[in-house]
Amino acid sequence: MENPLFIVLGVVSYWLTLGALGGIFFRDKTQVISVFFCLGSLGSLFLLATSIFSFNLTATINIPLGIPEHPFILHWDHLAAFFLLLLSLSSFGISIFSSHYFRHVEQRSKSLLCFHYHAFLASMVWVFLAADVFSFLLAWELMALSSYFLIVGFKSEPETRHAGFLYLLLAHVSALAILSSFAFMLHGQSQWTFAVIQQTHIPLIDASMALILMVLGFGAKAGVVPLHIWLPEAHPAAPSPISALMSGVMLKTAIYGLIRVGFGLLGTHFVWSGIWLLILGLITAFFGVILAAMQSDMKRLLAYSSIENIGIIVAALGLAQIFHEFSQNALAILTLSAALFHCVSHALFKGLLFLSTGSVLHATGERNLGKLGGLIRSMPWVAVLTLVGVLAIAGIPPLNGFVSEWLLIQAFLYSLHIPDPYIALLMPVAAAVFVLVLGLAAYVMVKFYGIIFLGKPRETSLVQAHDASFVEKAGMLWLISMCIFLGLFPFQLLKFAIPTAITAMGNSPALFPMPKSCLFLVPMSVAHASYSPVIFLLAIVFLSGFLYGVIRIFYHGKIIRGAAWDCGFPAQTARMQDTAEGFGQPIKQIFASFLHIRKELPNPFDQTPHYRVVAEDRFWQILYFPIVRGIAQCAKKVSCLQQGRISIYLLYSFLTLLLLLGWTLWR
Question: 72 vs 64, 68, 134, 192, 194, CA distance in Å?
């Protein structure tokens, strides 16, 4: 396969054609939606095969579109191929799930649903392949617009419109910051290609401004604190498969941008940029996991969990940058490879969890954790499938979530050898925060799974809940199989992640040889640490079988079964179970200073007392509400200029022309 870009362009054209045809056929037949989404999943399968078999190739093509003398340039390299691999792995299962899930959408929404969905996929592919500034920004805007219509196209509630507007506003802030960053990097060049930027000597001040704007732009898309406010609003508003794509894949376009620009295009590197990314990532991860523990909406909980995982990845990029600046290239490659592995892992298990919430939402009509419970009885398949995703995101071996987190812990342990004393002093604190975030993430997942599936149903209608359909199970099973496969055989993904990290940093492959053993995962040296997921799994199976045999042989017939102890009160109801608010109460008490807590206390003489405690995002009060009030006050003062008289408006125009003329003469 000499040029894989032709196949990728064929897949993109195929998706756009399916979307256009879907807009025509859905007006007449509802069942056609299943066929079109299943056909769309075949495009993901072709893209997956192309990414795997053409991974080591390098190719470039020019497309005579755009503006004169600036054609679109598409480039295939390790970094683009790796993120296309991530997209195809996730989108294949999500498209299969969507083929049945979206049959419940109203008929008026189906005509554009198929087009927006496949245009969203095509725009993300374009982002990963674009090799010039104009086509990259155009793809970035198309990705934002298509995902915006997927958020607001199904519901007409004010909350949905508000979430869509907030998302679109931050998306344009992101695009503006990225455009400004490219302007500093181009430094007056007539050619707008990434290759020209890479060869241009950028002055120190311009490179610093470009780096700051790059983190601002891509951080807004990724949901980095304090630019994360759109994410917990957009995910509950969007349909669950769209939330799975946005969280699993779209957020990774920002990570791709940080790696492409930060490691590839900016020739000038700074130690402070790595420290900045490390601190910003850890703050984001810590803040995200704390807010996730407070949520009573299952989709908002997963949204804040995505912020936490993005924070982990950004912190890993910062640590890799620090290693790279101190010429510890092997450690830099290890850290960046772990970050890339976590990108794929998060796309798989977070996509799975969003799909499971979609099944629960369809079956019960509820996403409030306070009205769920006991669904393991009526939805056993979804409960088992969700359990795998929960264990993976909690970092339980031998699943894929453990591999990337274990590699990052090893990288933090090696960071103690950084020669700079001040940075070395920072690293134990950073490692402690990282481990704390991982522990709290497992706590959040216990809450998520336990409140939804365990215990007794909190509402009588939950008894009638139905399990997911066969097609929806098939889509979830694909994501689960990938979580298990990459957890047991992480080398199959690391053989793509390590070359990607090496080429992203511009290093020689000899600095970090590929693992030779498929049984043991050795980060740096077997004398320090190693991990074998297969042996770990076999040990678990052996010990479980051994204990089961001991119980069957020595205790068979001696066990007396009886009712569980009811604490001396037999009239127990579902209201006595731990609620989502009660489960998060310890975290709320410990980390209250990081939250904005509103309390509604009952009146002692009230016949129907009501008690309510709400933990809100403090950044709204600190940052965004003052900005909104300031803009409103400025608009109120400026509104006096609007008199509604044409003579006044002509006077404004005349005075403006006089001022411009005076400015020109003065210059």
Answer: 6, 10, 8, 10, 11
The type of residue at 139 is A
Answer yes or no: are the C-beta atoms of 408 and 312 closer than 8 Å: yes
Is residue 337 a contact partner of residue 501, using CB atoms and an 8 Å limit?
Answer: yes
pLDDT value at position 402? 92
Note the pLDDT of residue 557.
62
Spatial neighbors of 591 by CB under 8 A, at least 6 apart, are 290
The whole-angstrom separation of Cα 271 and Cα 284 is 20
DSSP 614: E
pLDDT attached to residue 282 = 94
pTM exceeds 0.85 = yes
Chain centroid offset of residue 145 CA? 18
Name the nearest CA neighbour of 533 among 636, 665, 401, 369.
401
3-state secondary structure of 137: helix
Other CB atoms closer than 10 Å to residue 395's CB: what's the count?
21
Cα(181)–Cα(540) distance, integer angstroms? 51
Beta bridge partners of 70: 67
Can the peptide bond before residue 158 be classed as cis, meaning omega within 30 degrees of 0?
no
- Asked if residue 301 lies in contact with residue 452, where contact means CB atoms within 8 angstroms, the answer is no
Question: Six-digit token pair at 538?
Answer: 């076999």
The Cα–Cα gap between 520 and 47 comes to: 30
CA distances from 473 to 93, 349, 381, 476, 621 (A): 10, 15, 8, 5, 42
DSSP letter string over 381-401? HHHHHHHHHHHHHTT-TTSHH
Point out the residues of the chain with pLDDT beneath 50. none
Handedness of CA 389, 390, 391, 395 (dihedral sign): positive
Q: How far is CA 278 from CA 26, 321, 430, in A?
A: 48, 9, 8
What residues contact residue 330 under an 8 Å CB cut-off, 6+ apart?
511, 512, 524
